[in-house]
Specification:
By secondary structure, the chain is of the alpha/beta class. The chain is 44% helix and 19% strand. A hairpin with a 7-residue loop joins strand 5 and strand 6. It binds adenosine-5'-triphosphate and magnesium ion.
């Protein structure tokens, strides 16, 4: 058996199914740290209505708007095993459906005459189902993440699956029927980034017409704070400071790419690991925000762009730490252990030096 090929036991409603395929099936389980604010609950509820009515759902939106996480959450709610596919420019239909990837070795041992041992070996080409076929056959939930990264001709196979609930397979499948009836429990959840993103194909009209698209935007304030808090374990007032800065930069409209919640999580996690807070890290917090947000919002890292973003971030940090609402309500002693950063020591030393030279004058 090849490394990728796995013999799996799938537990479906109490029964055990052995699936000998080149595929990986995920158990439908709740995601760790999943946050359910009213925004998330509303989206989940609506998507589940459509799925229960028998329609595939397509979560569409810019990077970092929670599409993949929500798709996996929906899949876990359905309680069926999950197969996941990530869209890929290089995909062909056979990457989705399957092909003659394997060989079956047959060995015949003839012991008719006890003193003579006759063996016969031959290798038979063997059809191996890929993820899409497995999901259709056994009624699993398919999460096709970023499906518009695959070329439209590779995705054509989905048209009849979604509409006629039939899968048109190559004839070569070990003598099996060329048509596979899609299992009634089969469900498909798609995600995609907007069509102007690099490496993305326009989704075909026919395919788009067979799904219900839900457009996701950046999270609302409550969700952005709750997700960052859950992912970083930094306390809420500090997280609010970070989220205010990131949202301020996003709303400035001056970035090549708007900063996402990933920026919030990166800053918050770095602070948490260093046992710092925005106030206690002082100069280091400013640098951290500038580094992370300038890197997140530009593709090629052009100097002018970076400088522009860094300047906006600088103003936002000063505002947040100085006169912002959160800044005033926050407990500035903080709960995290404080170790002075090198930059603070440098600033303090410089100040002492200045005082000393003033006295000497
Ligand atoms: N409801 C949620 N609970 C907890 N974490 C979440 C939730 N939604 C999103 N996240 C976190 O936010 C980040 C971005 O989410 P996700 O990767 O799902 O976005 P995406 O829209 O798929 O982005 P991309 O288009 O770049 O793939 C991830 O770190 C994810 O773990
Ligand atoms: Mg994603």
């Amino acid at each position: 058996m090849s490394g990728k090929q796995q013999l799996r036991e799938i537990y479906v409603k109490g029964s055990v199914k052995m699936i000998d395929e080149m595929t990986t099936v995920l158990e439908p389980s709740a995601l760790p740290d999943f946050v359910e604010t009213s925004y998330v609950k509303d989206l989940t509820g609506r998507a589940l209505y459509y799925i229960e009515a028998g329609f595939p759902v397509h979560l569409r939106g810019p990077s970092g708007t929670g599409k993949t996480t929500l798709a996996m959450h929906l899949a876990s709610k359905l309680g069926r095993p999950v197969v996941m596919i990530h869209g890929d420019e290089e995909f062909t239909t056979s990457d989705l459906v399957g092909g003659e990837h394997g060989y079956r070795v047959r060995k015949v041992v003839d012991r008719f005459i006890s003193r003579v041992l006759k063996t016969e070996e031959d290798m038979v080409k063997r059809w191996v189902d890929n993820r899409l076929t497995v999901a259709c056959k056994y009624g699993f939930t398919l999460v096709y993440d970023e499906f518009t990264r695959s070329r439209p001709e590779a995705n054509n196979i989905l048209l009849s699956i979604l509409q006629e609930k039939m899968m048109d397979l190559p004839v070569a499948r070990d003598g099996e029927e060329p048509y596979l009836k899609v299992h009634p429990n089969f469900t498909a959840i798609f995600t995609s980034n907007p069509e102007e993103y690099a490496g993305v194909h326009r989704s075909q009209d026919a395919l788009r017409d067979r799904m219900i698209a839900m457009d996701l935007d950046y999270f609302d304030y409550e969700t952005e704070v709750a997700v960052t808090e859950a992912k970083s374990k930094l306390s809420k007032p500090h997280v609010q400071t970070i989220v205010n800065i990131v949202r301020g930069l996003r709303e400035s409209g001056k970035c090549e790419f708007a900063p996402t919640i990933r920026g919030c999580i990166m800053i918050a996690k770095t602070l948490k690991v260093r046992k710092l807070t925005p106030y206690k890290a002082n100069n280091m917090f400013m640098q951290m925000c500038q580094d992370i947000l300038a890197s997140e919002t530009s593709r090629v890292g052009s100097k002018t762009n970076q400088d522009k973003v860094k300047q906006i971030v600088r103003e936002l940090v000063i505002k947040e730490l100085g006169i912002g609402e959160t800044a005033n309500s926050i407990d500035k002693t903080g709960e995290d252990d404080f170790t002075k950063t090198d930059s603070q020591n440098i600033i303090e030393q410089e100040n002492k030096q200045k005082e000393k030279s003033l006295i000497e004058v």
